[in-house]
Write a structure and sequence with these properties.
The complex is a heterodimer of chains A (675) and B (348). Chain A has 675 residues and is of the alpha+beta class. In chain A, 35% of the residues lie in helices and 17% in strands. In chain A, strands 11, 12, 13, 17, 18, 19 and 20 form a 7-stranded mixed beta sheet that branches. Chain A is globular, with a radius of gyration of 29 Å. Chain B is an all-alpha fold and 348 residues long. Chain B has helices spanning 2-30, 33-41, 47-56, 64-71, 100-112, 125-160, 165-179, 182-196, 210-242, 245-252, 257-268, 270-285, 289-295, 301-309, 313-341; strands spanning 60-62, 95-97. The chains are: A alpha+beta (675), B mainly alpha (348). Chains A and B meet through helix 6, helix 10, helix 17 and helix 22 of A and helix 2, helix 3, helix 6, helix 8 and helix 9 of B.
Chain lengths: 675, 348
């Protein structure tokens, strides 16, 4: 064959190979399903950890809940969110006289089979044995109340425990146990281990293998919500001791799935745990549960495998979803116009594929915490500071903010608690948290400021005492393009009442430092609710919590503090206490409306897309254990995804005519000349 | 040459020390121990727990007053500063901060002992770097080699056919490609070549030879995007050389144009090319940030940026040290290669 033809043949082969559809993943994914029920999902990044006691973020909690279990979990069908027993046999009994919860455990819960339970592995560690021995597993033992005692102690003994705040100062004896553990952790690791394994916490004990008791210092009704989070999960001491720090990647729990594979930056594969107890899909005759009818009574988990792929960018995630290679996807700002019309309906492209949209309110609020100790805008500034705070609340067009930066996925915030939480009522909406710049200017003028018009809808508010424009600097916890746009939005909002709003954009770490030290006038903040109790959000404005880094504004109202102290221990299960709690929430909102330590911005709304073969659970933002109830019609997915993955010839030919053929001709010509 | 190499090697620890010092100062000026603690124990942890974490990690030391206070329960009186979640600890009274010099000493000691610790996900840093490096190299090495080979080849052709239609087409195409934002090209490639037309997978990575299937599109895009810059650089280098006296002499001797270019000109353009290639070495193992993110390649490209954004001090420290050492070695290698490529260069 003449050498001059080689480049042409090479180019032809390259194009032919590509056009043969070697790139398509649909067929290969369908083959990987092997006739099993496989859920295909994505994550923006790897979970930080699969150690439930260190899992503070939603991604980590989601994965922990696949493997680990707590005493209670959220009911799959009931809304609003309701707790039901998980590894507990029934809901706990509560003795108000001794402030003690008593849980009775199920006797059919077993840890997953794992190397750590093998007799040969006793006294050895994962790092000693290595990966090769892992296939030789031991039989998982039964879960007992002692595992919960040990796990609660571990949560309190780890210096980087993310959930200890839920128990701290609440359980009898836990503080002393924690302090001793912290001393030993650095001084003597062996003694620390001994303390963890054999040290006593007066308020946590197991009278027998299946009874678990917790006693409190004071009433703590949020405890049941707290233990439904991953922090309340039971871990096996054998597993933690065998795997050491690797337990964060080698989970061994009692849950419905076993971690089969975790390739960092790439994928996590969970498979049905063969030792998972006989838990059934709940039954209901209610019409809104009709779509779950086929699964009611079926053994859990429904799926055989859950495959998470790590996809950092929104475009590939969305494209993979459109191709049918992912079952469910969120909608990023950049994909919004492709997915939804301006009326927030699915575009024809998505409708044609049978894709469905589900939206729900998230318990995430954005707000700007105003530093109440600031001389210009805080309490020291008296009535003038209050007028500035009012003007700041009135100048923000929250609808515009939501439209511009969240593609309409949110609602203006006028309450400190979300609409789904007990205590919420439209009547308690804070009157100054609305868009009315004219009223804002009036408030400023009434407080003695001079408001000058300097153009259409542009004003300049001057302090006559100094002759300078009133200004404020907001610390923004991101430093990207979106935060730059947001800074411009804040500035233009301030212009409507004549206040100059400057922004300092920074990394989250720097923002944390500044906001914890409260060095700054205002802090752009956000909060995701941990459990559906108003106390969780109202604590953010409790005066003494300033030093804890929760109350960034440093708001310290005696009235509010007193009401908060009264509200925190109230139990919603008790009708009298419930009524008082509702009243207190209303009064606390009124107090906040009087003092305005925050500029409320918005509540987030989640938009989720899912394919017709996928049964998406009804939303419950506090629950992470729902994966075991989810089903995907895998054969239908394979069929549809393969039919969508067509390989047209024409674009390939055109591209090759444009690039490959001229390049190959050029190379041929050079070779010809050289020869 | 040996003396030169040894001298350069002896300078390295000093340069490295400077780099480490700057890294330490920059990191701890931006990130306080409190912020690090909050990132590890969560923003909802009490101040006491934050202090406990800082003490456990050597950033503060408890005073006697602090020790006594932390063991006692919080005061729950109306006028107490104690909170629902714990006691309030004062710097100076309850704890003292560890000096910067001591912290730097520990920072340096860990580096010298090759003890990079764990990352924010509790994985050994050394393992993270080792595992990610191979995926990065699988992407960057072939992409770099193909791009460089094509760049040199088309640069030579452009020089060979200068001021002809071929030269014009090559230069105009290079300018066109350089004018388009690389992210836009990645998005175009992914959307059309992969998702719409199904010629490549949209995203993913595989083991062994299966990886080639996933790497093909990112490599193609890398080469395509590099083409413009490569062609312009190589063309200029080649043209500079073709104006030299020895080229005129070679042509006067009757050598054909291909021999002149491929044998004589190419050898003499090696100095700028070596500089370019060797400087690129450190960036090869660190991967291509955007390409890796877009195409789901589990390399190191994202790691450093992610570590800085999340104040993962151990990863930052390891990548800075590794980057500095590689960069210094690459510089030394380029000096040695100059001498090999050009006998006129003497290392002394």
């Amino acid at each position: 064959m003449p050498a001059t033809r080689v480049p042409m043949l090479f180019a032809t082969a390259l194009v032919a190979m590509a056009m043969s559809g070697c790139g398509g993943t649909a067929a290969s994914l369908a083959a990987e399903d092997e006739g099993l029920i496989v859920l295909r999902r994505s994550e923006g990044e790897d979970p930080k950890t699969i150690d439930p006691h260190k899992a503070g973020d939603t991604g980590s909690s989601r994965h922990c809940s696949l493997c680990y279990e707590s005493l209670l979990e959220y009911d799959f069908l009931e809304r609003p969110a309701k707790l039901v027993p998980c590894t507990a046999a029934a809901m706990p009994t509560y003795d108000a006289a001794t402030l003690t919860y008593t849980f009775r455990l199920r006797d059919d819960v077993y840890f997953q089979d794992d190397r750590c339970f093998h007799p040969e592995a006793a006294g050895r560690t994962y790092s000693q044995e290595g990966e090769r021995r892992q296939s030789d597993r031991g039989k998982g033992r039964r879960l007992t109340a002692h595992d919960y005692v040990w796990s609660f102690k571990r949560l309190s003994a780890l210096p980087d425990s993310e959930g200890f705040w839920l128990f701290e100062h609440k359980i009898v004896g836990i503080d002393a146990f924690h302090t001793r553990a912290m001393d030993l952790y650095t001084e003597d690791p062996e003694a620390w281990r001994e303390h963890l394994n054999h040290g006593k916490v007066e308020g946590i004990w197991a009278p027998d293998d299946f009874t678990f008791c917790v006693r409190f210092v004071e009433p703590y009704p949020q405890f049941l919500y707290a233990i439904a989070m991953s922090y309340g999960a039971a871990m096996a001491r054998e597993a933690v001791e065998y795997y050491g720090p690797d337990i964060a990647r080698k989970p061994v729990g009692t849950g419905p799935f076993v971690l089969k594979r975790w390739r960092f930056n790439m994928e996590l594969v969970w498979e049905r745990s063969p030792t998972f107890r006989d838990q059934r899909f709940p039954t209901s005759t209610r019409p809104e549960h009709e779509r779950f009818r086929a699964f009611m009574g079926r053994r859990l988990p429904i799926a055989d495998r859950v495959h998470f792929r790590i996809i950092k960018e929104s475009q590939p995630e969305f494209l993979e979803f459109l191709q049918g290679n992912l079952d469910v996807a969120g909608i990023d700002k950049d994909q919004f116009s492709t997915a939804l019309t301006p009326q927030h309906e699915l575009t024809p492209l998505l409708k044609d594929k049978g894709i469905q949209l589900r939206t729900w309110e998230d318990p995430y609020m954005s707000y700007i915490a105003l530093n109440m100790d600031d001389n210009d805008i805080g309490a020291p500034a008296g009535a003038r500071g209050l007028a500035v705070r009012r003007a700041l609340c009135l100048c923000i067009d929250r609808d515009d903010l939501i439209r511009r930066y969240l593609n309409g996925r949110g609602s203006p915030a006028r309450h400190v608690i979300p609409a789904s939480t007990f205590g919420y009522s439209e009547d308690s909406a804070m009157s100054w948290q609305r868009y009315d710049p004219a009223e804002g200017r009036r408030q400023l003028e009434a407080a003695g400021f001079r408001v000058e018009s300097i153009g259409r809808d542009l004003y300049r508010t001057v302090d006559p005492a100094t002759g300078k424009q009133v200004s404020i600097t907001v610390l923004i916890r991101r430093n990207d393009q979106q935060s730059a746009d947001y800074a411009v939005f804040l500035k233009s909002s301030g212009d409507k009442v004549g206040i100059r709003i400057d922004s300092e954009r920074m990394t989250f770490a720097e923002w944390l430092k500044r906001s914890n030290d409260r060095v700054g006038q205002a802090f752009d903040s956000g909060w995701i609710m941990d459990y559906p109790d108003a106390q969780n959000n109202l604590q953010l404005l409790y005066g003494p919590n300033t030093a804890q880094g929760l109350n960034y504004s440093g708001y310290n109202s005696e009235t509010y503090n007193r009401m908060y102290r009264e509200l925190a221990p109230l139990d919603e299960a008790d009708e009298t206490q419930r009524a008082r709690k509702g009243e207190l929430v209303r009064l606390m909102h009124a107090e906040l409306d009087k003092d305005l330590p925050w500029v409320m911005l918005n509540w987030n709304k989640t938009y989720s897309l899912f394919h017709s073969w996928y049964t998406l659970p009804d939303p419950n933002p506090f629950a992470y254990t729902y994966t075991k109830f989810v089903h995907a019609d895998t054969p239908r997915r394979g069929e549809l995804a393969t039919s969508w993955a067509r390989t047209p010839v024409l674009p390939g030919l055109l591209l090759s005519l444009l690039f490959f053929v001229p390049a190959a001709l050029l190379v041929s010509r050079v070779i010809r000349q050289a020869l | 040459m040996l003396a030169y190499v040894l001298r350069k090697l002896l300078y390295m620890p000093l340069i490295l020390m400077g780099v480490i010092l700057i890294t330490f100062l920059l990191f701890f000026v931006v990130t306080s121990p409190e912020a690090l603690a909050r990132l590890r124990v969560g923003s909802k942890a009490s101040q006491q727990q934050v202090c406990e974490w800082m003490a456990a990690n050597g950033y503060i030391e408890w005073t006697d007053a602090g020790r006594a206070k932390r063991a006692a329960p919080p005061e729950r009186t109306e006028d107490s500063a104690d909170t629902e979640q714990g006691r309030v600890f004062e710097e100076g009274q309850d704890f003292v901060r560890t000096g910067r010099l001591v912290l730097f000493g520990r920072f340096l000691r860990d580096i010298l002992l090759f003890d990079y610790g764990m990352d924010r996900r509790d994985r050994p840093v050394a393992r993270v770097l080792y595992e990610g490096m191979w995926a990065s190299l699988a992407l960057t090495v072939p992409a770099f080699l193909i791009a460089e080979l094509l760049g040199v080849f088309f640069g030579l052709i452009a020089a060979m056919y200068r001021q002809t239609r071929i030269d014009h087409v090559l230069v105009i195409s290079a300018i066109l490609i350089m004018s388009v934002n690389s992210i836009a090209l990645y998005m175009f490639g992914q959307k059309f070549l992969a998702a719409e037309w199904n010629y490549f997978p949209v995203i993913g990575y595989g083991d062994g030879l299966n990886a080639a299937r996933y790497l093909a599109l990112p490599i193609l895009l890398y080469v395509f995007i590099s083409y413009g810059e490569q062609l312009r650089f190589n063309r200029i280098v080649m043209l500079d050389e073709t104006n030299q006296d020895y080229v005129r002499t070679a042509r006067a001797k009757g050598l054909n144009e291909n021999t002149v270019l491929f044998k004589h000109v190419l050898r003499n353009t090696l100095i700028p090319l070596i500089t370019r290639w060797v400087v690129a070495i450190p960036s090869l193992y660190l991967g291509a940030l955007v390409l890796e993110s877009f195409f789901g390649i589990p390399g190191l490209g994202y790691l450093t940026v992610d570590a800085i954004a999340n104040s993962d001090v151990n990863i930052v420290r390891a990548t800075v040290v590794l980057g500095s050492i590689t960069f210094m070695l690459a510089n030394l290698l380029s000096d040695v290669l100059y001498a090999v490529a050009d006998p006129r260069v003497k290392l002394s």
